[in-house]
Every structure is written in C-alpha cells, then in structure tokens.
User: Fold these one by one.
Assistant:
Number 1:
Amino acid sequence: MKKRKITASGVIMLIILLLYIVPFYILIAGSLKNNSALELSPPDFNIFRNVNSKSYAYAFSKLPVLRWMTNSIAISVLVGLFTVFVSATAGYALARHRTPFFSFIFALDIAIMILPQTMLLIPNYIVANKLSLTDSIIGVVLTSVNPAFGVFLCRQFMLSLPQELFEAAELDGCSEMGKFTRIAVPLSLPAFGALFLFSFLGVWNDFLWQSIMLTSAKHMTLAMGIETLLSGIAMTKYSYQFAVSVLSVLPVLILFFSCQKFFIKGITAGSVKG
Amino acid sequence: MKNTLEQPSRGVRRTGYKKLQRCYSLLFLAPWAAFFLIFKLYPFIYGFVISFTNYTLKSSSFIGLSNYKKIFSDSAVWSSLRATFFYALLCVPGTIIIALLFSRAIFPRSDFYNSLSKSILYLPSLICSVVIVVIVKYLFSTSIGFLPWLCDHLGIKVFSVFAKASSSIPLMSFLIVFLGVGQPVVLYTAAMGGIPSDLYDAAAIDGATKKQIFYRITLPLLRPTTTLILVTTTIGALQIFVYPLLFTGGGPYYSTSTLMLLLYNSAFFNGQFGYSAAIGVVLFVITGILAAVQFRMTRRDSVEY
C-alpha cells in the first residue's frame, strides 16, 4: 500500500505544477482585459473585475482571424487524414509480411524517423518550388505529411491484432482488400485516433514550414497570424495578441482533455520495454 | 487472378496465392513509397548535391567545395555554432535532470495525482511556440507591466533580458527545458512502472536507503529510457530555431543565433540556397556524430531485467 505522506518534495512539486498553470491563466485573463490593465504596475489579472471581450471583438472585426483559423483547421485536418491513410496502408503491408524486402522498408521508415528534418528544409523547399506546391494549401498539406512515425505505430498496432482473425477471413474467402477494410481498419481505430491527433497538433502548432511555404495573406495560418502581431501596430497591444493566442490554444486544450488517454498512449508507443 | 486460385495442385495454389498477396501489399505500400521518394529520399540526396552549387532558385552552377570553404571562414557560422552548443549544453542535461526529479516526485503518488501531473506537465508541449513567445515577450517587456514592477520591488534597474546572449540564451533554454519536459516525464514514469517491485522489496529487506535504491536500482534500470531521451533532446537542441528567431532574431551579432537560424536566414533572406544546404549538411554531420557517440557511451553495460 502507498502511504499518503506530506513530504517536502511533494509540496515543492505541487507548487511547480501550479506554476505550470500560471501562463495559461495569464493568457486567458489577459485576453479578457483592457490593454491598459496589462500595462499597469503590477498588471491587473483579476478576472473578477473589469472583464470584457473587447479584444476578441477587435480580433474578429479588424483582423482576418476567421480566415487564419479556417486555413489552420483545413491544413491540420487534411494532414491528419493523409497521414492516417498513408500510415495505415503501409503499416498493414508491413505487419502482414515479414520477408527481407518488407523488413528493409521498415528499417528505412525508422531511419527517417530518427533523421533530423533540418537537413531536408532547403531541398524540400526547392522540391516543393519545382512542383509548384509553394503558396498553396494543398502544397503545404502534401509537404507536411510525415508518415514515418505513423507507419511505425500502425505496424506495431496491427501486429498485435490476433492473426486468427485474418486466417478465418481467408478461409471464408475474404479478399485482401476486405481483410484490410473489414478487419484491420476497424480494429486499429484507437491507433488511428492517436496518430490523427498527433499529426493534427503538429501542423496546428507548426510555424517554420508554413511561414516558408505560404507567402500570400489569404493563405496565412493562425500561428503565422500571431507572429505578425508581434511586430507592427499590434506590437504593444498585448490584449489583442493574447486574444488571438487563446483562439490557438483553446481548441488544443479541449482536444487534449477530451482525448487524454490517446495522448499518453501515443507518447509511450514503442518506446517502453514490455 | 481466378486461374491462379483454381490451380489443381495445392502447393502451387498456395504459392500463387502468397504471390498475389504480396502484389496487393506492394499496392498498399505505394502511397508511402510516393511520399518517401518525393519528399524524403530525393530531397536528402538533393541536399548534398546543391551544397556543391550556388543555387539561387533562378540559376545554379557547380562550384565544388566553395560553400564548405566559406563555412569555415564565416564568423557568423562560428558564432552560431558556439551559441548552438551553449543551448545544447543547457537544454540536454537540464531536460534529463528536471525530468528525473519530476518523475521521482510524481511517480510514487496516487494514480489520480500521477496522471493529473503528467497532463499538466505535458500541456505546454501542445502549445504553439509562437504563443509562448507572446506571453514571455509580454512578461519581459522593459517598459510596461510585470518586469518593471518586479525590478522595482527587488530594487534593481530594469534590464532587457534579450539584449545580451548571456541572459537570453539561459532564459530561452529554461523555457525549452521546462516547457518540453512533459514527454520525458511521461516516458520516465512509464519506465519506472515497468521496474519489477520485487527488486525494491529485496533492497528494502537488505536495508537500503531511499537514496541508495534510487541510484543503485532505479537509475541503472532507466538507462534505455535515458538513452532515448538523451538522443532525442540532443537532436532537438541542435535544431532550436523558433525562440531565437522571434525573441532576438539571432542577435546581437549572431551571438544567440543557432546554425538552424543561420541556415534559414541564408536561404530565405539572402537567397543563398546552396550555402544554406551546405550548412544543413554540416549540421547533419554534427548531429549524426553526437547521436552515435551518445548511443555508444550509454549502450555499454546496460542492465537487463
């Protein structure tokens, strides 16, 4: 039995955990305040008085926030779907066959997973440029799909499915395609869910690649939009920056707390013994 | 297709069927293969090729090793390299020590506390780094709000944290360590959960202290996890980019710039894609060597259980 004892390390940890919440509180409280409240010394973060939604009204009326959000959602959802599709098909093939050829493909996949993406930044941009994928939503989607981890995850997951199911289906005359769509896919939905979440978030929070690829204002994403607020007229209007930031953070928080199990499972997938 | 299935001999039919299965599987691999070839393998090779050219999107010609010669004489490269290692030296050991301390504090507690703390520690990893920049820039603004108030209370003069590398690099590393510690903590606590409890029981019977148990049992058994975290955070630290770009722009005089930021600036501000690709190759080689050394060092005498 574990004893509940109040120890020094326990108390310190509790304080640290509270400190982790503080930035979120500052962000949300600050977005509900007037800009002048944030400029006070000390700044006023009391959410029980002088709270208003002026910053949000400004964001939605004066800034193309809706467009930024639509672009971000479209890109992230499409990348998520593409990643799941590519990973599921390849993962299935790698789980079903273990000839040297398929093992080699799997090793290649692991190699890309470890390979730092830095080195690919410039050549990837040049390839995208040659294929006229720059400054287009579809172009960003196609170049942001990174199925390396997904293939690994799907293969491991599908390997853990009972082989008897596939053998039984084979005896009943199920086609290869049927085995995939009727057995492997429905049973692997938890893995697909985790994978979709991870790719969605990766792209939702991505800033570097999107800012390189997308140049015209109509294609701007939320992360890029917030970055433009850091300079120019909005530079000292912190409450506006906070409001738009909340619009980027809030969907993530909702997703995280409603699908927490997927996240923790996804992080440890394949990295823990046993 | 039908014919293969209706072969009279059973053996032939089986091999025919297996072959058919493999053909289908190749079909299943096709989308991945397309992505792999177009966006991974080709760019990987192409990156080496253009590092020997003066590629500028409009023109390109072979210039041999000139880019690499230029890298060795470019003071911006040396400053950025120094800064990159400064970040890595703070971030990599920092992440491992903080993750271990946090995991050690969280793990023995109740399941509820355990999963709640993991969630809280993981939250910042889910946030767009630009949003972190927004909050921190506000908190460290020299003219308004929090920092002037704090400095006033402490009785010191208001200073700009981002004006000097000696204060901005530690601050950015602090952010990277504490906001990125969620994943290592999840990995460490999961690994701690995998250590058989009889080892602890045996140690307790032998009269080992808590400290001894941690250093003699837990730590050695966490070695595979430590290796994983060590290598991934090293690779991550060598690619630090967004914070220096948005906080300091790499300045003053490249003292906070990373190689990654220099690579970005050479390509997308100066248009020198060839030179930039060469920096990419150098960074790749540095990363590869460090990762290999780390694997080697931590691999030996790893403990099985």
Number 2:
Amino acid sequence: MIRLENVYKIYETTTKEHTALDDITLHIKEGECVLLRGHSGSGKSTLLSIIAGILKPSAGYLEVDNVRLSKVPDNFSTNFRRDHIGNIFQKYNLIEDLSVFENVITPLLPTDLSFTEATNMTIQAMQTANILHKKDNLAKNLSGGEQQRCAIARAIVNKPKIILADEPSANLDYDLTMQFIEEMDKLKKLNKTIIIASHDDVLFKSNLFSKVVMLDKGKISDIN
Amino acid sequence: MILTSGTISYLGSNTAIYILATVAFVGAIKILKTWDFNSTTNLQYSNEKLSFLVSTIIYFLLLIKIILSFYLLYLIDSLVPFIKAAMCGVGVINATDFGWWLLALKIVLLILFGLWITTNTKDIEETNYPFLKFKFVFFIIIFVFLSIELFLDFYTITGLDTQRIVSCCSVTFSNTNQIGNFISLSRDSVGTLYGVIFSIYVVFGLLSLYKEKFSTYFSLVSIVMIYAGLLVLIYTFSPYIYELPTHTCPFCIIQKEYNYIGYIFYISLIFGCFFGIKSGFSYAFLKKFNKQDIVLSLVLNIIFLGAGLFFVINYYLTNGVCL
C-alpha cells in the first residue's frame, strides 16, 4: 500500500542543510494502523507530508497505492491527495466562519461530483464522525472535541483509502483523546489505512495500532 | 534610429524576454545533460523541479512573444510618419536592410512557439515526462532562432534610415518590381493558384478527419497555405479592399482607414495554418491526434477566404465589374 525506500529529506537554506529524514525504509500494508512516534523535530510531520505528496523527498522512492508518488509532477500529486488521502491536522484547519456542513463539503467542490452526490457524501461523513447534529453550526462555535470530529468528517468525506493525522490529540484532554481513538477505530474497521504522528502516551498505550514506528533525528530507531 | 515609446518598449520587452529565455536555455541544457527519469537521486528530483520551472518560464515567454509579434505590425505602422515617402508599413520595412526577413522569421517563430506549447501541454498531461527531452531540444532550436530574431529586431529598429527615400507599397508589390517578378503571376493567376492549393488543403483536411495518417500531408499543405494565403491577400484580395487596381499592399489593410481588417486576415491565416501544421506535428511526434485541430484549421482558413471573397463580391455588386 505504502512503500518508502531509502527516503531522505534535506531542508536547505543558503547557509546550512538540515536532514529531516535520513534513509527511511518503511512498508505499510492496506488496512494497517500505524503510529509514528518521536520527539519534536524527529521527522514525523515531514514523513507524513511526504506520504501525502505535499513534500517531495530529496532522494529515495515512495509508492502509495501503486502510484510512484515521489516521481509524479506536483499537479498529479495534488490530484492524488484529493482523491486518495484524508488529512487531519493538529489545529484542525477548519474555516471558522463556515458551518460544519460547509467545511466538510469543501474538499468535494473541485471534483466532478454533482451537488446532490456531494451533499449525500458529506452527510454520510458527518454521520460516521458523529457530528451530523451540529451540521449548521459555525466552526468557531464548536468545542474542541466537536472541531476534532468535524476535521475527521472532512478528512473522510472523499472516501480516502489512507488517513493521515498529525498530532491529532495535541489540543485534546484525556476524554476527548479516547473519543478520537474510538473514531479512528471505526475507520480502521472500514479497512482504512491510518497513519498517526504523535508523541502522546495515551495514543501509544491504546490498542489501536498494529505497528509503532519510532523516529529519532530523522532515522527509524525501532519498529514494533 | 527612431526613439519612440513604442520602439523603446518593444526592444526593452524583447530584451527582457531574451534574458528569461537565456535562463531557460541554461536550465534546459543542465536538465538534458543529467536527466534520468528512473533515478531517485537528489539530482534527479532537483531536475524534475527545475524542469517545471524552466517549462513555465518558456511557456510564459512564448505567450508574450506571440503578442509582441502582432505588436510589431502595429509598431511598424506607427513609424510611417518618420520615413520619407512611406505611405504605410511597407515603406518602413523598405527603409531597413532585413525587415522582410524579420517578418518572415516572426511567422516561422509563431508556428514554432505554438508547436512547443503543444508539446509542453502534452508532456505535462503525463506522469512520466515522456516528451521532456524532445521539448527541451526543441526549445534549444527555438532559442537559436530567438537569438537571430533579437539581433534582427535591434538591427532593424535601430537601423531605420530616416533619410532614405523609400518606395511605396504599390511600387514594391507591382508586377514590374522584383518581388512581383519573383512570382511572375498576374492577379488572376495568383487567385487560381491559391484556389488550387486551397482545394488540395480542404481535400487533405477532410481525408484527415477520415484517416489520421493524412494529417501529416495536411500539415505540409498548411505550410504551403501560409505562403499562398499571403500572396492571394496581397495580389488578389487587397486591390478589392482598397478599391484601387494598382494598390497591392499587405500593410495598409491593418490601418484604421480599412477598419483594421488586416488583423482578421493575418490572424485567421496564421492561426488557421498553425492548427493544420499542429495536427500533423502532434500525430507524427506526440502520437496524438486531435480532430478539433483539423476542424479549427479549416474553419479559420474558410474565414480567411470568406473575408477576401466578401470584398471581391461586394466590389462586383457595387460596380458591376471585377478588377
């Protein structure tokens, strides 16, 4: 499903280079739920961005769902991301002045779907993420947990095979983190491939993950 | 040299574009030297990013050059008052050494720009850069022409001789003049020749719609059509537009007095022939056939012919005779 071979990511400035990922080789099967663990600056977010096709590796090979994502031009990786990947961000990145429904339907607007089809898919995603009852509320009036569920609904609205989440529990207390784990468990049962980058112990101790990848200074230090 | 806001902005724009083209040229050379699509090294990924940048630069500058080429026609026409005895752009060009060559080169470059943009469009539709090497080699050839063109642009504009007494268009394109003798054909003969070439062009166009392989022949006939179209416009249609049998000129028709009708002729002819050339080029080099190109080419050339015939028929209906 996801195959990384000898992936490097080097950020270059005019004066120095910083190696964010250093010779990463990782295989993730379809339906697996993977936790990327490591301290701040260990390369978790960079790795997620590369898998999502947001960043290109500096060297190495990346294949996602049989597409050589590291080799395709940017316009194709954008379309690939739109069609195959759902992203959940640390700060949710919701548009505050739009309603929950409008936020969730947004990723479907640049597609060929009719408005009726898009609406049906949006309602389905809000149901799955348990936020349908708030569909007309503005995003800025939601609680932290509700914003999280709205972000999950937006991430799954295009029915992606892969869901990526970057520090999803950073702004959540224990109860809300447990709710998030339940939501992810539901998606796991739908055979979604889920990759979560986090250093949160609550997530680590849950039995959500089939694989835990430890990152340290851009290298994989351990895989359980 | 004539310094007007038009000449300064024209030369300034062309110089700026040439500098951009030089950047793209260096980038294209670098990419061609080290390109290896199957490689996953840092160098290859840098090349892929660079190729996107270089292609974007070339695409942008070629689009601007297309606009500038038509602006040159307007510019030449605006310089008429500065040249002794000049009545239209023909007089201005006659006051230069290589003005006619520059115009011919502009037409060739317009076609080449269009073909490069076609290649680039096809290349970026695919995920594996199938025409990357082809399009950058193609650009290097265009760059050589761009260098010659920039030299001719400067040589022509800065070398305009305001003291030279030039011939007007009717003399330049009369049958006793060198250019007139070059074709050695009367007005009616030019019309007949155009009619024959146009018929062949239409036949190949229709055959191409039926079988793709004929598009190669269609594109070759389209090249001939540019020359035939210019001849028929100058020698057959223009006297009817001017309503004067001795007035044969490719430039007066772009003046306000004739409602800028020349732009319709030139745009329909050049773009019409371009789409014809493009169809065969795409089929032969890009392995892609597009019926729309053939249809567009035929429609534009029919507009060209129709516009010309309109003046002929209108003259006949008004005066009861042909020129």
